[in-house]
Design a protein that fits this description.
Layout (H helix, E strand, L loop, with lengths): L1 H10 L12 H24 L13 H18 L9 H17 L5 H14 L6 H4 L13 H9 L7 H39 L8 H7 L9 H22 L9 E3 L16 E3 L2 H7 L4 H24 L10 H19 L1 H11 L9 H27 L3 H25 L11 H9 L6 H8 L2 H4 L7 H14 L4 H29 L7 H18 L6 H23 L7 H7 L4 H55 L3
Antiparallel strand pairs: 1-2
Helix pairs in contact: 2-4, 2-21, 3-4, 3-25, 4-20, 4-21, 5-22, 7-21, 8-15, 8-16, 8-20, 8-21, 10-25, 11-25, 12-24, 12-25, 13-16, 13-23, 13-24, 15-16, 15-18, 16-20, 18-22, 23-24
Length: about 650
């Protein structure tokens, strides 16, 4: 292990013999790249809705795409100006900054926030009575109230860059950008606390970063691997054929999606409902690096949830209309995984407490200072988040409960990404606000709390675009390069500061130019969804949803049992992560791909062994490269020329 680490450090030495580091020019270049990144993510996912999924993927294709383009540009510049070259650490710092920009501008954050804060004022009517039940409870500064400014936003053929528009948008942009910055800073500080234990002690594998590390390496032996090019050719051919079919419908195509529900038309089998079997190249490429038991568990528990639907139809579970409460079970699973992550880290956390309180002899060490700063940042950040939520209308104790569960879920997501590289972790419609509503009911919460909690829907609807796993993976990149993490931490802080305003700018720029009414339907739907949910809470005051709470607790307990079984028995066939992610919406899309890659990996390991697995990794990395560069190029060209 020591020799391998030494080789990695030596490979990343500069000509002066100093370790590779993140230079200031890389941070500045990252700042320049971020608005471009935000612009394209918003355009692709929110405005035209073509080739979406960039910000919702574990490996964000636009970040990899931009990194390789930068490599090509600076390789050309290096011939005449060698001092302008970028090191591998520089490239990966820019990659990390682009990841943060993509997450914040993504489908599960600002793309929900902007519709959320514009929808109520524009759609208030005598029928919904929002002028009495909603708008008076929206605090000043977080929404836009001017009808003309909103009219141009919805209708389009205008410009953001008028005095009228900028005057009404500057305060909401600053308020929400500040909130996002603090939110990300607390997540980064939590990563600082856990990263040494998870990265250096536990030696978690961090599968998602393997491709960026290989592509940015100074030596390009990776690209001489024939299997890599076979993988590129496979995904490239499939994508080229299918994109040509979109342009020329008479051109043949390769079907990658099948609806299995159409084959089950009679009761009770038709209870399975929507059951797509999709071949998703991204999931297959990344899935090959996921442990076999996790892959098996993902599709096994998805089928088990479908079997429970059939069982409910057979025995007539009319008293439990939402059975098997898969979202609630998943929520419990994620909370359990967060608890497990803290339990695994408990000794490290005790050591940190002793270190920052001065009980260790080396408490004055730089590492102790880093932990002190991280702890203070977490405490101050949480205080600021709760103050802001109080301004939104939420009670303090609900805010504390919300962010306690929110960051517990983020720890679970960060740990599962670091340990097994799971390609999806969405937890749709089952986050803290849903859990709190199930536990207390809307009757026990104040009206202003319902309004305030609704305004947090943009961070709670789903957990695909969350930056915390990307932050943690950046620490692993630093460790793999043999570089002190200070430069990467600074890059992440800078990215967190600029990501909010840049994402909001990109969304507003597109919206005023095109008009939300003329853009993809999600721009209206996200606003409708948020406030229709609020209206259901406010108009139908409910008590505790006992069934939902029970199934959430069952999901939590079952996940803990699965982890205990995995720790006690070597033969244990299922993994708790597979159970937690399989009850959520996105697994319906991904289970078919997980089944395929599980079968392929099982056969390779059984008949070719670990050596065969290592050789095959090049092919599956090639699949990812082909999808990123062929699919990415088609996506951008189609938008530019409006091909379909």
């Amino acid at each position: 292990m020591e020799s391998a680490t030494g080789w990695l450090i030596a490979m990343n030495m500069s000509s002066e013999g100093k370790p590779n580091k993140v230079h200031t020019k890389a941070i500045l270049l990252g700042i320049l790249m971020m608005p471009i990144h935000s612009y394209w993510i918003s355009k692709i996912e929110a405005i035209v809705y073509k080739g979406g999924g960039g910000s919702t993927a574990s490996l964000i294709w636009t970040s990899v795409y931009n990194m390789v383009i930068l490599m090509a540009i600076f390789l050309f510049i290096k011939r005449w100006r060698p001092k302008f070259s970028l090191s591998q650490a520089d490239l990966l710092a820019i990659f990390a900054m682009c990841n943060i920009a993509a997450c914040v501008a993504g489908h599960d954050m600002v793309q929900i926030l902007v519709p959320l804060i514009t929808y109520p004022q524009w759609n208030a009517s005598p029928e919904n009575e929002w002028d009495k039940t909603l708008i008076p409870y929206l605090p000043n500064g977080v929404t836009v109230t001017d009808k003309l400014t909103l009219s141009d936003y919805f209708v389009g053929e205008s410009s953001l860059y008028t005095i009228q528009h900028l005057r009404y948008w500057v305060t909401p942009v600053l308020c929400w950008s500040g909130f996002i910055f603090v939110l990300l800073l607390v997540a980064l500080s939590l990563n600082v606390i856990v990263q040494r234990k998870w990265t250096e002690t536990d030696r978690l594998s961090y599968p998602v970063i393997q491709l960026p590390l290989q592509l940015s390496a100074p030596t390009k032996s990776f690209l001489t691997n024939k299997l890599v090019w076979c993988g590129i050719a496979t995904s490239g051919i499939i994508l080229n054929i299918n994109y040509l079919h979109l342009i020329f419908p008479a051109f043949p195509w390769i079907q990658l999606s099948y609806e299995l529900g159409q084959f089950f038309t009679e009761s009770p089998w038709n209870a399975i409902g929507w059951t797509p079997f999709n071949i998703i190249i991204n999931y297959i490429g990344l899935g090959f690096f996921v442990p076999l038991d996790v892959l098996f568990s993902c599709w096994f528990f998805l089928i088990l949830f479908k079997a429970q639907l059939i069982l409910a139809r057979i025995i007539g579970f009319r008293s439990l209309p939402n059975f098997p409460y898969s979202y609630e079970q998943s929520a419990g699973g994620y909370l359990a995984l967060g608890i497990i992550a803290i339990w695994i880290t408990r000794k490290h956390l005790r050591d940190i407490f002793k270190m920052i309180s001065g009980k260790y002899e080396n408490s004055a060490h730089k590492e102790a200072n880093r932990y002190r700063i991280a702890t203070i940042t977490i405490l101050v950040g949480m205080f600021l988040l709760i103050v802001f939520c109080s301004y939104l209308g939420m009670s303090v104790w609900i805010s504390l409960a919300f962010f306690g569960m929110y960051y517990l879920i983020l720890l679970a997501v960060a740990r599962m990404r670091a340990e097994i590289g799971i390609p999806l972790h969405d937890l749709h419609f089952a986050g803290p606000s849903t859990i709190l509503m199930n536990v207390f009911g809307s009757r026990r919460l104040t009206h202003s709390t319902l309004v305030g909690m609704s305004q947090l829907w943009f961070i709670d609807r789903a957990y695909r675009s969350n930056p915390m796993p990307h932050q943690l993976e950046t620490f692993k990149i630093s460790e793999r390069l043999g570089v002190q993490p200070r430069g990467f931490i600074f890059a992440l802080i800078v990215a967190s500061f600029f990501a909010g305003p840049m994402a909001l700018w990109a969304m507003l720029h597109h919206s005023y130019e095109i008009g939300v009414q003329n853009a993809a339907p999600v721009n209206i739907y996200f606003g409708y969804e948020t406030w229709a949910r609020f209206q259901a809470w406010a108009n139908n005051l409910t008590a505790t949803n006992v069934q939902s709470v029970i199934f959430t607790l069952l999901g939590l307990a079952f996940t803990l049992i699965l982890m205990l079984g995995r720790l006690r028995f070597l033969w244990w066939p299922v993994h708790p992560v597979g159970y937690a992610v399989s009850g959520s919406w996105q697994m319906n899309w991904g289970w078919g791909s997980f089944f395929i890659v599980w079968l392929i990996k099982f056969i390779i390991l059984k008949y070719m062994g670990i050596q065969g697995f290592r050789k095959a990794t090049g092919y599956f990395l090639g699949l990812l490269i082909g999808e990123i560069f062929v699919g990415g190029t088609w996506t951008m060209v189609s938008i530019w020329f409006n091909l379909w």
